[in-house]
Structures are given as structure tokens and as C-alpha cells.
Amino acid sequence: MSRLDHAEAAARFIANEKHEAFHDARLWDLRKKRDREAHGIPEWEELRQLASDIKEHTLTHQADYLEEFERNAIRNGIKVHWARDAAEHNQIVYDILSAREAKTLVKSKSMLTEECDMRPFLERRGIEVIETDLGERIQQLDDEPPSHIVVPAVHKLRGDVSAVFARTLGTEPGNEDVNYLAESQRRTTRPYFLRADAGMTGANFAVAETGTFVVCTNEGNADLSASLPKLHIASIGIEKLIPKVEHLGVFIRLLSRSALGSPITQYTSHFRAPRDGAELHIVLVDHGRSERLGMQDFWYSLKCIRCGACMNTCPVYRRSGGLSYGATYSGPIGVIIDPTFDIRKYSNLPFASTLNGSCTSVCPVKINIHDQIYKWRRVIAERNQLPLMKKATMKAAGKLFGNAKLYRAAVAATETALEDLPRFAIYNWFNPWGRQREVPRPPNKTFRAWYIENRGKR
Amino acid sequence: MTSSRDMILAAVRANAPSPAIPMPQVPTFDRDGPSLLERFRAGFELLGGTFVDYVPGTDLTAKIGELFPQAKVICSATAEVTGNKSLQEIKLPADLDDVDVAVVRPAFAVAETGSIWLSEAELGVNALGYLAQHLVALLDPADIVANLHHAYQDPRFMTAKYAVLMTGPSATADIEGVLIRGAQGVRSLKLIPAPRVNVGKA
Fold first, then answer.
1. Domain B33-192: homologous superfamily in CATH
2. Which of A249, A434, A450, B66 has a CA positioned 20 to 30 A from the CA of residue B20?
3. Mean pLDDT of all residues in chain A?
4. What span, in angstroms and rounded, lies between the C-alpha atoms of A40 and A184?
């Protein structure tokens, strides 16, 4: 697969100043709300440590907990399926649906089904799939993937949504009233809930002790998807496990506070057994997770609870938009997960970071995200996956920084150059930093020159 | 042929990181503060719920009528409120689509987050809590626990087929972050602090 050019894709997003400015401000607002909630809880840091410890405990006993979860789910009357990869997952879902002649599937947001590219697979086989989360529905109708794992259409403005709905749902062209747009989606989605043959959800957590899975949502669409049709299918990544019900207390307290800055989602729904007269199926999906578990530096990313806090705080993500990452997972968490799916395609992503560490500070399960980003850069360099341009510059920089005399000579030359060179020599294709910013004015003298003058004699 | 299940379990076992990390103990983080009812109310209202003034012992069916004078179809999953649509008549969950107001009595509530706890036992038909346009919850102030750690110690989590911690009406902020109450589920959630009658907790 060809290499994704994050910088080029981001440039297209940045070109639209209104969108970029709104995106940046909206996500930063989520970050501020998250801070307000976090600071309101004295035991916040203790909760983060507990969450991290519970996840690390589970991941180091993963096989046992998977077996326990399966055993309990089966005892409760749930059908449990296992899928090694995306293709097997999609086939299993299709087989369940087609065996029951199900033609219409209402589903709530699931990053796993995005990861598996399930919708087109089912649609090609004659199944009508309706995304019922508002943001996800906007993206479906616009034939775009979600740009954020929690707020899928956050890169769009109301005018964009209005245009998409006018084109696809027949709403009034030019009506950009947000209430009207949301109400239009409610009105047009409800009939699908009422007549759908099957409903589908993902899961935020799966509890080994009881065989329960938990879905956290705000719109009520997941519960409608699960409580109306006779068939409910849940796709669950194997890393969603936690050992006990009491552990939910830790994770539910952290999840929505980290994601949206609200104490809890409107609906925290626990599914332990099929309701009377209905069927409940679970597909446990690996799709690269067991392999990631064996990566010494990178298995910690499996602790992720998909809150999106790292995305909301990331200066690169906020200014480049989720679609520029070209993957289901974008932002800092995407940067450390995506290369495990395809190291060549995503070899550019670990460079979409300033390594400022803000992602690590807000992560509710204490994933060392920025360390992992740095380590991925090393892996990519070692496997010779660095883009040519980066390689050439890095090689030159390496020589320069490795030799004191060369470095000093270069600094002196650069200072003169920055002052004397015409703009085209600084702001050109070889200097990507100069494309969106001004190079700062060089200081009058280097620190070294100042030091020799002022302290050097002592 | 080895099943996918066995292959996944074998891979997970082979790749298990070491050393194994022990399971931590989770405290309940108890703290003094305003009364449980006050804390509950603050959380409930923060997420868009409406608290209703109620004189204990007065007629609840009349109260619902006062709150929703326009309502045509009222469906109650409680013995205390009489509606005009019976849950017993429901053949399919979709038959509840015309309900204007649904009434439930949560098994308990959580002060920290302002959430009410409902399972199939309290909802009668699970879809009732979502298809209705408006939902009213009757809560005994004695049924409130302090925080989520206490909530998750409730044994009903081990036995309910379905259970939801519901906090306010359905909501979305998916377009430009503009908050809309009444996304796909109920448009409003009202709470009447009405003690249980005829003694005993459910």
C-alpha cells in the first residue's frame, strides 16, 4: 500500500481557515471541560493509576479472562463468535444476518466495525446499514469515514451538515439551524429503528466475571438499536475486557470526563443476557491485537479506552483534522496504533507530533503515548521506512550535531544567512517549517558567544 | 482444523507480556458532603434532567397529568401511576412508538453522577425508556447511593439481563458542539422524589 502523506492531507484541511479555526477551538474546549471535571475529583490521579493497573493486570492475564468472559456469556444465553481478522468478522456478521433473512441493520457507533470496513461489505451483499449516531450518520451520508473516534463529524460546520442533509435527507436547502438539522435526523432515523431486522452495537467494556458488555452513549441510539429488533449483534475487540463489575466504577468515572468533560454519558448500558424472545450475539475480534500484545514497547496501547482525550489536546491533531491521518484511529492514539496495521502505509504518522507529551498527561489509563511515538520513529528508521526527504535531512543534521566544529560553523553561517538571504531561499520546498510560519528573527549572538564573553573567563 | 477461537487464545497466551501485573484493590472513595439527595439533584440537573416539586403522599397520576396536559398516550411501568396504555398489550417493542409519557420507578440512583438505575424489571419493556417522547422517574430519596463504586456493588448487576445508568434525557452535540436535548431517545427526563409506598425496597 502506498505511503500516506499526512502533511499533504493536513495542508488541504488547513487551507480552509474557517474550518481549521473552529476545529481547533472546539476540541480545545473539550479539553478544558475535561480539566474542569478532572480537577473536581480529588482522587483523579489515583483513579488513573487504578485504571492503568487494572488494564495491565487484565492484559497480562488476557487469555484466562477471555475464557472466563466467554463461559459466562454462553451461560447467560449469548452466542459467542471469534474472529481473527476483519474479513472473518465481517463474514460472521453477514452469516448471522443472512441466516435470519435480515435485510436492515440499525447500528450505533463502533470504531471496530470502521476498522473492519464492515458497512461496504454488508451493503454489497444487499444489507441496508443505517448508522444511527448523529455524527456517524452525517459521515455515512457524506460517504466519509469518521474524523474523530468520539465526535465523528467534528471537522464539519453546520453549513456542511445542512448541505449533506439537503442532498440526502431532503431537508430544506440552506436551513442551517442546528435544532432543525438534529430533529431531521431523529425524524428520518426513527422509522428504521421501528422496522429494522437487527441492531448492532460495539462495546466500551466487557466484564469477565459476568459476561456483561457495557455501551456508553448519549443519544439513546444504542439502546434503541438493542431494544427494538429481535437480533442484537455486538462487535467487541478482545482488549475491551476487564475482570470485575466493581472495576466499572473506575472506568465509568474516567471515560466521559476524559472524552467530553461530562461526569457520565447519558446512557451507560449493561448487556448481560438476551432479552426475552430475542437473540444476542457477540463477535470477539482480534485483528492484530494479539500480535500487538507481544510487542514489548507497544502493548501498552491496548489499554486504550477510546476516550479521545489525547486527540482533543494534541496541537497537531487539532490543526490538521482527523481525516488527514487516513486511518480509523487518528491523533496521538492513531499514531501509535496505525503502524501496527501497516507500517509502510502509516510510516509518516509518528512524525505528526511535536512530542510535547500532552497526550500522555491526559490519558485516563496512563498510556505513555509520546514515548511510544518516539519509539515508533526509531522502528521506522531502522526498518528503512523513512521518507527520502526526511532521511536526507536527518543524515545531514546527524553529521552537524555530532561534530562541534561543524555545528558552530553552521550556526554562524545560518545567522548571517537568515539575515541576508532573500525570502525565497528560506521559504522554499526544502523547508516545510517555513510553509505555514515565519522563521523567528535570529538572536544577535549565539548562547556560546554570550557565555564566552560573560562567563568564559571564570 | 484449529478454530479461530483456539488460534486467538493461543496467540494471546504466547504473547502475554511479563511480568504479570497483580489485580489492584478498588476503594470506594467515600467523602463527606451535602446530602445524597442534594448531590444527586445537582448531577441530574447538570445533564439536563428536571427535578419536580412533590408533596409526598399526593396522587401521582394527577401529578403526571399536571406536568403533561397535552399528553395523549401515557404508559406506566409502575403500580403507583395509572396510564392509558398498558404494557401487557404490547406485542412488539415498536408498539410503544406512540407513547408520549412513560413512567418508571428506578431501583436506585447514584448521587455522584445524578444517574438512575433501570433494568428490564423496572422498564417492563426495555424500549419504553427510549421510544417514549418523555420519561418520568419516581425516586425514593432513600434509594440513593453515594457514587459509582457503591452502585457497582449492587447485586442486581449480576442478575439483570439489561441494566442502564440513565442520566438526563438523550442528548447530542455532534453538530458544532451545539447541545441538543432530545437526540434519538426521550426528549425530557423528569424526576419526582416520591418515597416508595407499602414499605420495603424492590
1. NagB/RpiA/CoA transferase-like (3.40.50.10420)
2. A249
3. 93
4. 37
Contacts of B4 in chain A (CB under 8 A): 82-84, 88
Q: Are residues A59 and A197 in the same domain?
A: yes
Which residue, among B99, B133, B172, would best test binding to A if mutated, counting the most A CBs under 10 Å from its CB?
B172
Would you list the domain boundaries of chain B?
33-192
**pLDDT tens-place string over residues A150-204:** 999 999 999 999 999 999 999 999 999 999 999 999 999 999 999 999 999 999 9
Clarify whether residues A138 and A4 are in a common domain. Answer: no
B98 has a chain A CB within 8 A of its CB:
no
Q: Which pTM value belongs to this model? A: 0.92
Domain limits at A244?
A: 42-287
Same domain, A93 and A230: yes
CB contacts under 8 A, B 25-84 vs A, are 26, 29, 31, 43, 46-48
Partnered with residue A83 across adjacent β-strands are: A285
Q: Are residues A8 and A76 in the same domain?
A: no
Q: Which residue of A has its CA nearest to B168?
A: A266
Per DSSP, chain B holds a count of helices (H) and strands (E) of 7, 11
Q: Which residue of B has its CA nearest to A182?
A: B183
Residues of B within 8 A of A267 (CB-CB) are 164-167, 170, 185
Q: How many domains does chain A have?
A: 3
Question: Distance of alpha carbon B43 from its chain centroid, rounded?
Answer: 13
Percent of chain A residues past pLDDT 90, beyond the cut = 82
Pair (A12, A74) in one structural domain: no
ipTM score assigned to the predicted complex: 0.97
Tell me what pLDDT residue B201 has: 42
Residues of B with Cβ-Cβ distance to A253 under 8 angstroms: 112, 147-148
Q: Which three cell numbers stand for residue A13?
A: 484541511
- Which among A419, A76, A443 is positioned nearest to A280, based on CA atoms? A76
- What does the alpha-carbon distance between residue A136 and residue A267 come to, in Å, rounded to a whole number? 18
How many Å apart are CA A55 and CA A49, to the nearest integer? 10
Backbone angles phi, psi at B110, to 5 degrees: -120, 120
